Recover the amino acids of this structure.
């Protein structure tokens, strides 16, 4: 399956299933959310994940936590250099306006709503996403948005620790170089892996 450049898609996963996100062309940032059905109120929370991991980085084997401090996803594979962002909110219309864009600009916030709507779901509040492949340096307390260091074909695999809806947005940011110096948003590939095909431990066989 494809998440087209600048667009979002939502996927239902049962507990134990995995979702593989392939950075097909490299350097594409993918905003990721996980929400617990049916109400979608409990969600993957970056503040609680940072606290749970006592880290600003997520590594293979780490859980991602909900706002109730329960594991909701686990990062089970990562062939990228492991640089993902847990600090920045999803881009939204105000962000592009702030950057000087005039008129409508695609954005991850609206992609989140549109992707859920395709599954007949709705969630007014947009949690802060896990920004896969997004390179933010935080040396000396300063945050700098840098081009992704991910390469073509790099992938991550996230395992559902319970039934979840995962929303992905191929970030349409083309005004700062997070999606590479060329600032051209690209498609990414997605594959769902059943609990059986992953042997139950999330490791692909
Ligand atoms: Zn975005």
């Amino acid at each position: 399956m494809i998440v087209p450049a600048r667009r979002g898609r939502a996927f239902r996963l049962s507990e134990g299933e995995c979702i593989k996100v392939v950075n097909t062309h490299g350097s594409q940032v993918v905003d990721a959310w996980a929400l617990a059905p049916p109400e979608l109120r409990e969600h993957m929370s970056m503040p609680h994940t940072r606290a749970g991991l006592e880290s600003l980085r997520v590594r293979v084997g780490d859980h991602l936590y909900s706002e109730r401090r329960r594991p909701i996803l686990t990062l089970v594979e990562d062939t990228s250099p492991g640089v993902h962002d847990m600090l920045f909110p999803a881009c939204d219309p105000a962000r592009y306006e702030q950057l000087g864009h005039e008129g409508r600009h695609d954005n991850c916030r609206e992609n989140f709503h549109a992707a859920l709507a395709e599954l007949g779901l709705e969630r007014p509040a947009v949690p802060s996403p896990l920004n896969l492949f997004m390179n933010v340096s935080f040396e000396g307390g300063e945050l700098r948005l840098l081009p992704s260091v991910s390469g073509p074909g790099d992938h991550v695999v996230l395992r559902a620790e319970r039934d979840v809806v995962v929303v992905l947005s191929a970030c349409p940011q083309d005004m700062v170089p997070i999606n590479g110096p060329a600032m051209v948003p690209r498609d990414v590939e997605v594959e769902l892996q059943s609990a059986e095909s992953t042997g139950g431990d999330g490791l692909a066989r």
